[in-house]
Amino acid sequence: MKGLPELVIGDLKVKRPVIQGGMGVGVSLGQLAGAVAKEGGVGIISTAQIGFREPDFETNTRAANIRAIGSEFQRARETAPDGVIGFNIMVALKDYDEHVKAAVDAGADLIVSGAGLPIELPGLVEGSSTKIAPIVSTEKSAKVILKYWDKKFSRTADLVVIEGPKAGGHLGFDREQLETYTQESYDNEIERIMAVVRKYAQKYQVHIPVAVAGGISDKDAAEHAFSLGADAVQVATRFVTTWECDADLSYKQSYLNAKKEDVILVKSPVGMPGRALYNKFIKNMEKARLPISKCYNCLEKCNPQKVPYCITRALIDAVRGDVENGLVFCGANVGRIHEMTTVHQLMKDLTRSFV
Asked: CA 93, CA 301: separation in Å to the nearest integer?
């Protein structure tokens, strides 16, 4: 491959076709997103319990999160005044609409949205210049979202992120799909999703760029994604072991220590399977339900009386460094990471095929 392709999302021009995936709680905030945007990629801040470091988070969670959306964006923008910076906002959040509006008010270039179907997203950004990108994992989900946007809002996506079965965190598959998909069979799924995207691109006479995500751990995986026709790759897990990542150093070290056999699928209160590192927290969860002393009202469909654990508490504990007693989400290829690096070096490594 010769010459680094430029990613164009509407009127946004991205120098390097790498989108840093959103990682909550507190793993991808303004520091990491700003560093990626400064290097010419797309920096993404996760809004999931983004305000956990605010002094009033325990007493006024909603206000703390809304405030932090603005402050973390400013933090990223100070690092990359001319970079492309956006947010990852989960549909499963109870305050989804408010998070989207706060991101738009902050000046977000882009909103990437998954963990559910973001069917009402166009209406929430109407009148702004913020671009929107649904995360899809199957041809069916792509058809549902793009058809709805077309019929109700007379518009289409500015970008589509295809997240495969090797991704970390919440996954858009059931357990059976995760166990049966092969690289070849999911490549075929990607091609079917791209055909759906092309249909709407043709209708609206625009180019809708597609980013492939899930298991993009090195230049070979990136090269494979581009060979399928992707305009960009979305990478998350690899960015955790950068010095600029917002997580505690112990969290990063847990990735460096991880082996392939340490990665398991867990049931999330969101109702989706998730991929995480096996630790004391998960061992205890396997034995019995972990009591919930406080509800943070984070998820739309969470019943604190029935779910196996509090995902907010588990993720906050982990990102603050208690990696044995917290939930450590990760991608399938975390076992391939063996050293810390910088965002600058990682961006170079991921795009080495083009030089």
From this structure: 9
φ/ψ of residue 97, rounded to 5 = -60, -45
Enumerate long-range contacts of 187-193, CB under 8 Å, 24 or more apart. Answer: 187/228, 189/138, 189/139, 190/162, 190/164, 190/228, 190/230, 191/228, 191/229, 192/139, 193/136, 193/138, 193/139, 193/142, 193/160, 193/162
SS3 115: coil
- CA dihedral 138→144→146→152, nearest 10 degrees, is -170
Q: Which residues of the chain have pLDDT under 50?
A: 1
If you count them, how many residues does the chain have? 355
Tokens 């929107």 -> residue: 132
Give the span between the Cα atoms of 146 and 352, in whole angstroms: 33
> How far is Cα 34 from Cα 78, in angstroms, rounded to an integer?
8
Rg over alpha carbons for the chain, rounded to the nearest Å, is: 19
Question: For residue 233, what are the β-bridge partners?
Answer: 18, 212
**Residue bearing tokens 């509006």:** 101
Q: Where are the beta strands (DSSP E) in the chain?
A: 7-9, 12-14, 18-20, 42-46, 84-88, 110-113, 131-136, 160-163, 169-170, 210-213, 232-235, 263-267, 273-277
pLDDT in tens, 197-212: 999 999 999 999 999 9
Strand partners, 329: 276
Give per-residue pLDDT as tens, 120-155. 999 999 999 999 999 999 999 999 999 999 999 999
pLDDT of residue 290: 82
Classify each residue of 86-109 as buried b or exposed e, where b means 16 or more C-beta atoms within 10 Å of its C-beta. bbbbbbbbebbebbbbbbbebebb
Q: In 107-228, which ranges are continuous DSSP H helix?
A: 121-124, 139-148, 175-180, 183-204, 219-227
Lookup: tokens for 348: 């170079």
Strand, coil or helix: 14? strand
Residue 83's nearest CA partner among 36, 47, 128 is 36
